[in-house]
Amino acid sequence: MKRKIRFTLSQKRAVTGLLFIMPWLIGFLVYYVRSLVLNVRFSLSKIEIMKIGGYRATYIGLQNYRYALLEHATFNQILVNSIRDVLIDIPFIIFFSLFMAILLNTKFKGRGIVRIIFFLPILLGSGAVLESLEQATRNITGGASATIAELSKTNQINIDYFLYIFEDLGLPVALVDYITGLVARIFEIVRASSVQIIIFLAALQSIPRSLYECAKIEGATAYETFWKITFPMVSPLILTNVVYTIVDFFVNSEVVDLAYEVAFTNYDYGLSAAMSTLSTAVVCLILVIVSALISRKTFYYN
């Protein structure tokens, strides 16, 4: 008689999780692992394109890495700037996404239209539409800069004067720099928050209503309800959104543009592969550190 296999509850959950990620795992093994191996191989080689087609890879050790880190004119600066922008923008993107998700989760007229508006950047985030948006961003930024310059010229207004006033009022220099950096990238931040808003919105709608009813019966204020119920229940999705934001930010960063330019404009595939490998290693290190820090404060229901 054939014996039926019995799983414990933890084993059933492990199997369910494995089946859930199986499509991604198959795609990763089939398409990405080979690309990663080839990228590391190219980064350790000098790539020459043959006239008859194909390429020839000559092993040169860490020469491409040394050139990228010690001799290239802009790679280090672009990489550092990208890391700085990530560290500046992520807290505001997460806060803005959670704030908008809470607003969109409340009942008001036209809520469906407002949700569509915040979802539009995802639909418009590719191809010619994205190029048009980037052109519009440059025009808006240029127009705003021209307007400020014109105002400064005609009215003798200097934006640095206001920054000095804020510093004289006792605001920390780091806080002033943080705020000015956010204002300069407000369009990019709003556009980069769409997916995070949807994830937070789904998390808010999955919170059992009985928890809020109990809090209301106990006389909890809105402030207490947020910090004792809402925030702990959505905290696992904060980690998800932070990881997504970091990866999405670097995919669209200047480091990727530089690696692309080196590969397909200068035709230096080995150096481009070294730059890609270095930036990937930095992103993975940031993800490990951030995930370890946030996981300590994450609350998992059940």
From TrEMBL:
InterPro entries according to UniProt: MetI-like, MetI-like_sf, UgpAE/MalFG_permease
GO annotation, cellular component aspect: plasma membrane
Record GO biological process: transmembrane transport
Pfam families, A to Z: BPD_transp_1
Membrane topology: Multi-pass membrane protein
Location(s) in or outside the cell: Cell membrane
Transmembrane segments: 12-33, 86-105, 112-130, 182-204, 225-251, 271-294
PANTHER family tied to this protein: BINDING-PROTEIN-DEPENDENT TRANSPORT SYSTEMS INNER MEMBRANE COMPONENT, BLL4140 PROTEIN
UniProt protein name: Carbohydrate ABC transporter membrane protein 1, CUT1 family
Naturally occurring in which organism (per UniProt): Thermoclostridium stercorarium (strain ATCC 35414 / DSM 8532 / NCIMB 11754) (Clostridium stercorarium)
Lineage: Bacteria, Bacillati, Bacillota, Clostridia, Eubacteriales
